[in-house]
From TrEMBL, chain A:
Family indicated by similarity: Belongs to the UbiA prenyltransferase family. Protoheme IX farnesyltransferase subfamily.
Alphabetical keyword list: Cell membrane, Heme biosynthesis, Membrane, Transferase, Transmembrane, Transmembrane helix
Gene3D superfamilies: UbiA prenyltransferase (1.10.357.140)
Predominant location category: membrane
Membrane topology (UniProt): Multi-pass membrane protein
PANTHER family according to UniProt: 4-HYDROXYBENZOATE SOLANESYLTRANSFERASE, PROTOHEME IX FARNESYLTRANSFERASE, MITOCHONDRIAL
Function: Converts heme B (protoheme IX) to heme O by substitution of the vinyl group on carbon 2 of heme B porphyrin ring with a hydroxyethyl farnesyl side group.
Name the UniProt record assigns to this protein: Protoheme IX farnesyltransferase
Entry's localization field: Cell membrane
Any further remark recorded for this protein: Carbon 2 of the heme B porphyrin ring is defined according to the Fischer nomenclature.
Automatic annotation (TrEMBL), chain B:
Top-rank taxon, per record: Bacteria
Organism: Pseudovibrio ascidiaceicola
Transmembrane helix recorded as keyword: yes
Transmembrane segments: 21-42
Keywords associated with the record: Membrane, Transmembrane, Transmembrane helix
Protein name as it appears in the record: CoxF protein
Length: 310, 51
């Protein structure tokens, strides 16, 4: 019996009425760390958008986007409970830990999904609500249920879901999708593959055990390193796009170029150091720097907008 | 039909109370939020709408 088969029946017992989860277990279902990234990038999109929205409505719009993002996290854990139980990074999540049943997670995720989309529609507009609904659908159905277990390109295409929040934030103010909001989308979209593949290089064994066809599992670590460098090269001009498109100042242009070059430097180190613990360490350094990169890029855009540099 | 009731442990009672309080707070926040949304969206015209 494989590890997967052993965990397949996890809390599937129809007589298990649940009711063991604490409030913190339900909060964990929302993936708070991912949620903080969603809130931050959505807030940047919302602040950068031209137009006037009442601050209270802006705050509630961000709250809706956060809850929608959290709901997709809960639905992801509902579907992926079997593989979460196998991987060291995820086996302490509420469902594999036996604190929340799959049915409870599903109900929780669905209620929050519908609630957040409908509230955003009422508070802001139905374009933003539609985009939020699409984000949840894309993450849960396209990425989690379909791509994640079937193709090594899972996180490339699935990354679109994580990249959409700034577009939702923008649309909450303007009610439309523009070149600027697409540029914000492209930053996170291009950033996602090197970010996740760096982690996949460290956790390769986990993904292998769980049968998830991540790029290092299917194509090998060398091919993954090539791809990381390629996407990091692409990220350099994409990160600078706000400056080229005229909605960020020269300060942002220079800053994003430096950050992009440092990112590329980390990627090249991952490409060069391929053996033993040193290889894992360099991959982990890239993973950590990638988080820092994204935060600084969006913080830069936010700061320029707030102090009126653009 | 059996009339046996499940006996909850101290721990289960504690987590259930926590969930109940969280639900009550969430409902309270939702009521307040929709009240504020109504005021902000309708503004001063809130009492001056066609019935």
């Amino acid at each position: 019996m494989t590890m997967l088969e052993q965990t397949q029946g996890l809390h599937e017992d129809a007589t298990d009425l649940g009711g063991r989860g604490s409030v913190s277990d339900y909060i964990a279902l929302l993936k708070p760390r991912v949620m903080s990234l969603v809130v931050f990038t959505a807030a940047v999109g919302l602040v950068m958008a031209p137009g006037n929205q009442h601050p209270i409505l802006s705050f509630i719009s961000i709250l809706c986007i956060a809850i929608g993002g959290g709901a997709s996290g809960a639905l992801n854990m509902w579907w992926d409970a079997d593989i979460d139980a196998v991987m060291s990074r995820t086996k302490k999540r509420p469902i594999p830990a036996g604190k929340i049943t799959r049915q409870e997670a599903f109900a929780f995720g669905m209620v929050l999904s519908f609630g957040s989309v409908l509230t955003l529609g009422l508070v802001a507009n139905w374009v933003a609500a539609g985009l939020l609904a699409f984000t949840i659908f894309f993450y849960v159905v396209i990425y989690t249920m379909w791509l994640k277990r079937s193709t090594p390109q899972n996180i490339v295409i699935g990354g679109a879901a994580g990249a959409l929040p700034p577009m939702v934030g923008w649309a909450a103010v303007t009610g439309d999708v523009t070149l600027v909001s697409i540029a914000l989308f492209m930053i996170t979209f291009t950033w996602t593959p090197p970010h996740f593949w760096a982690l996949a290089l460290v956790k390769n064994g986990d993904y292998q055990a769980a049968g998830v066809p991540m790029l290092p599992v299917v194509a090998g670590e060398t091919a993954t390193r090539h791809q990381i460098v390629l996407y990091s090269l692409l990220l350099l001009p994409v990160g600078m796009a706000p400056y080229f498109l005229g909605f960020a100042s020269v300060f942002y242009g220079v800053g994003s170029a430096v950050l992009g070059l440092v990112f590329l430097g980390y990627a090249i180190r991952v490409w060069r150091v391929r053996e033993g613990d040193a290889a894992k360490k360099t991959a982990m350094s890239l993973f950590k720097f990638s988080l820092f990169y994204l935060m600084l890029i969006f913080a830069g855009l936010l700061a320029e907008n707030m102090i009126g540099l653009v | 039909m059996s009339k046996q009731k499940a006996v909850l442990s101290e721990e289960q009672i504690k987590t259930r109370r926590g969930r109940s309080v969280a639900l009550a707070v969430t409902l309270g926040v939702l009521v307040a939020m929709f009240y504020v949304i109504t005021i902000v969206k309708l503004g001063p015209g809130i009492m001056d709408r066609p019935l």
